Write the structure tokens for this entry.
Amino acid sequence: MGFPQLYKAIFIFFIFSLSYSSIYGQKKTRINIVNAETLEYDINLGANVQRLKGDVQFENKGLLLFCDSAYFYPNNFIEAFGRVHANRGDTIHLHSDELEFDGDKQVAMAIGNVRLSDKEMLLESNKLYFNIKENTSSYYDGGIIHNKKNTLTSKRGFYNSNTKVFSFKDSVQLKNPEYTMYTDTLQFNTFSEIAYFFGSTTIISKESTIYTEKGWYNTQTDKSELTLNNELRSAEQTLYADSILYDRHLGRSRAFFNILISDSTNKLAITGEYGVYNQNTSRSYVTEKATMIQAFDEDSLFLHADTLWLYRDTVSNLNEIFAYNNARFFKPDFQGVCDSLVYIQKDSLIRMYTDPILWSETNQITGDYMEILIYDDEIQQLNIDKNAFIISEVDSVHFNQIKGRNMVALFKNNEMDRIFVNGNGQTIYFAEEEKAPKSIIGINNLDCSNIVVIIEDSKIKNMTFLDQPKGVMTPMDQADPTKMKLPGFKINNNAKPRSKEDIYRVN
């Protein structure tokens, strides 16, 4: 953000105060007249008051003061007028329309078109005050500081060389080719070379807009901390956190407590208690109650894992979310758990790895690996690879079951519509009476390599066996209770997230 430029921009103001203080110190020193074309006394101005005109020059321990005319009072006080110019060597120059200097009280005031400059910097103000005894300098009617790349304006400016603190207050604005800063109070410690922000502060650049109400920046290490009501906005995302540590050299931010990364364009948000963002790679991660919220038209999906990684595709402006360890998600019409998960917005895919389980209405779905395709805010397709198993509850004791090597399930209106079983198909299906009250009249045990299953109202309506099926239909009064479940059958209702709050539950 170019904060070292800020350090340079304010350096000239306080360095003049230091130099001026070193000239006079705490000892009273007589101001010497070096030159004047005419020198006269005017009794109307007081006893022993000298009026000097034409190429007037004073000197005091290396400080030279030039002006068109001046009054020199016997109490070691000068009033200088017209093209006032004070300098010490060729380093620092002060120009103004008027200058008042009290050599005994060690205070000075430059008035009208004040310009304090060196070879690189320029301070402009209407009035500039110097209190040499207290080692302070200030302006109260507005001031502007320029250098080659920066313009800093404020209504008030103050420097105390004892505390090494320079303060800009009231309508502070710093303009730089890379950014513009607006703040209420800006303080700079010349010993530690740390800048402090107080009050509403906004820093606007091409890449981002930063808002904070309290913080600091170390110009030596390029590190900063934002500590109150912090907000970092880019074109696509906004980061909020109670505290943000920023390392400009590494291009990395660390965020603490109440973190929110908001992507309004893609209706996505990530929350947590600790996070890191790298602006050079557009990557971030969040831990400690890390949560992703993906909003849809009718509802939202809530995902929690030990750690969430967010990758921003700068071409498509879409996100890739990686959830590692103990991933759990909840959406009113489907829920899931697995060890790790990847959500690719560009492909509209959710990929579930390692012991994935998905619940859709009354169906429990398991497999070695799953892919959920979401389009137009609705589930369109589910791919289950290896050991695919769907269990559908008929009642608390009986379950329809479909098992196969791989499965593809198609959805309509977020409800499962049909299932394609590809390889090693096995089914257990409980036949019910068509008329109410419905009761189970038999059990179908059928094996077939490839099967098409039609679903209606979350229940199996019919099955089409694409190869020669093998199996039997057994009346319930003759059914063997030990053959009512396929190998690998397991109900995992205890692991099922019941609400968006339940995703944080530890099983």
The chain has a mean pLDDT of 86. Residues 3-24 form the longest helix (22 residues). Helices lie at 3-24. Residues 6 and 504 are 45 Å apart (CA to CA).
